[in-house]
Amino acid sequence: xxxxxxxxxxxxxxxxxxxxxxxxxxxxxxxxxxxxxxxxxxxxxxxxxxxxxxxxxxxxxxxxxxxxxxxxxxxxxxxxxxxxxxxxxxxxxxxxxxxxxxxxxxxxxxxxxxxxxxxxxxxxxxxxxxxxxxxxxxxxxxxxxxxxxxxxxxxxxxxxxxxxxxxxxxxxxxxxxxxxxxxxxxxxxxxxxxxxxxxxxxxxxxxxxx
Length: 210
Description:
By secondary structure, the protein is an all-alpha fold. It is built from eleven helices and no strands. Helices cover about 80% and strands about 0% of the residues.
């Protein structure tokens, strides 16, 4: 079981790193950084900043792995607790395997970003790329003239997150030998409050430090 978990975690991490590098390459992040910082820094300072980013890029890759590990384990723990109160029993490592499998859905987000800005919105800024989240409420409303603390919750309201919930519900229902509806209720009652708390926390810090 742990071998299967590790292989999924490794594949997911490598995929995230590769897609993030593709995103930077296709959307010319060096140029975006240069244009975004040109009013605050000199050309030499910007080049030094970009150089440092490339030199220490492996730290960013390591951070992706750590954040993914923490995120998936915490979500697995919340669902495990939710199953306990629902009188259903699944081992934590099996739930972790399920969560890792569902996380692959979010690989579509940077891929959609690449497609959108490479083929459709060919004139864009660094802020456009940062705030763009495919099929989200933020894309409908737009981030211009929007209070910063509204941005993250509106990004979180998206079809990929809904698909994540539904797939988790399907897999939980399958493993508990019930159905998708029962599995979705377990996800909603465990992961749902945790996600809400996380969003509220991000809003609080954004409001206080923006």
